[in-house]
Amino acid sequence: MDYGNCNLCPRRCGVDRTAGQRGFCGCPDTALVAKAMLHKWEEPALAGAGGSGAVFFGGCTLRCRYCQNAAISGGAVGKATDSAGLRQLFEDLIAQGAENIDLVTPTHFLPTILPALRPKLPVPVVYNCGGYERVETLRAEGCVDIYLPDLKYADARLAGQLSGAADYFPVAAEAIREMVRQVGAVRWEGEKVTRGVIIRHLILPGNVENSLRVLDWIGETFAPGQVLVSLMRQYTPMGNLPAPFDRRVTEEEYQAVLSWMYLNDL
Length: 266
Fold this sequence. Notes:
alpha/beta, nine-stranded mixed sheet, 9 helices
């Protein structure tokens, strides 16, 4: 796994980032840290009392038109940081009380991140991503305790229109299966998750059917309790998106998806 002939994400650009070439993510051959903080607003099962030690990396393998972190995810943003610098950053966050190290959009910087995770940290490592991952890359990393992927779409048209990835669902579905294969069923210590997969799904306005199909797939693919589902309703209109994406999710839409989630025993 390296930055030369870069194939870390499903875009498989094949560029040589060590020679200054840029692929879809637009990022160089070292990690770009846009922000590091104690993040107390992650899922309660992750954040606990101390908060997640969130490290936000610049760039992304998706182009979600409603992204609330677009200033970070849109390209090469952040402070260039090598593996030793990342390790120090992780240890500093743990010293401040972080319950875990939460790697936010890490995929395109894994060659820099992975050495920073060895030797193993004293808290769980969370891989926080958009779900659009290569199975081959996931198999090569082997340092994650908790996967926190999105499963945004079952609808290829929506995925292409809103995130520039019409192949999103089959790619993300295969990746999530691999994540579960790696870390197994969810494990708890008290009220905190210490290992497993938590799948996030953001309800999109006017697209309840997409959410129902996502939940159907999760229910059909995994046994009850094998994964957790974090259902999110905080969609916020961003930019000049057309209807229905120019409004928030209604209470009726949220309740329809929530009741379907309960029917699927998720």
